[in-house]
Amino acid sequence: MNCLPVRVILTGGLLLLPALLLPARSPGDQVQEHTGHPQHADAAQASHHACLEEERASIERGEGFGMAMPADVTDYPGPRHVLDLASELHLTAEQRAAVEKQFAAMHEKALVRGKELFEAQARLEQMFRDRRTEADLREQSFRVDSIHAELRWIHLSAHLSTQRILTAEQIALYTRLRHQQM
Predict the structure, then answer these.
(1) pLDDT per position in the chain (182 positions), as tens?
(2) Residue spans per domain, the chain
(3) DSSP per residue over 28-82, as a string?
(4) Which numeric CATH code is attached to 76-182?
(5) Model-level pTM?
């Protein structure tokens, strides 16, 4: 299953949505109206849980799961993708070493922050089980989202750093190659 992370629907701060994960649909998929049958609700819930598990596994591996999409779609290359396209981009030895260093630093930070995110989320769930006050729950909810924002920034800032390593020609080629892959 491919899941699409949907966090900010409109850029520029015009419309923000809470963290949602939606199953990706291929053009041939038909969206059916909910008919009130329990199997439709069960299937939707199973799909949603599968997407959450896919996101969790990605974060546990230190991957971004679409967190840096605003950078990627606006021609800020990601270090992992640059390394994947190293030969096509004709990276120099110095560029490759710099991107590898950037990727390693991003990956290490993402692993640490991802673990903190899961711990904070587990704490929030425990607080609900413990019937904590609304103020406590609100504070922990904001903590979870703050950690998630920090994790997202780790991935976004890696795109900023990677762009500074490449030439304008390499960035243009990267953009063409990435759009062909998407």
Answers:
(1) 556 554 432 333 333 334 444 444 444 444 444 445 566 678 788 878 889 899 999 999 999 889 999 998 899 999 999 999 999 999 999 999 999 999 999 999 999 999 999 999 999 999 999 999 999 999 999 999 999 999 999 999 999 999 999 999 999 999 999 888 76
(2) 1-25+38-60, 76-182
(3) T--PPPP-S-HHHHHHHHHHHHHHHHHHHHHHHTT--TTTTHHHHTTT---HHHH
(4) 1.20.120
(5) 0.75
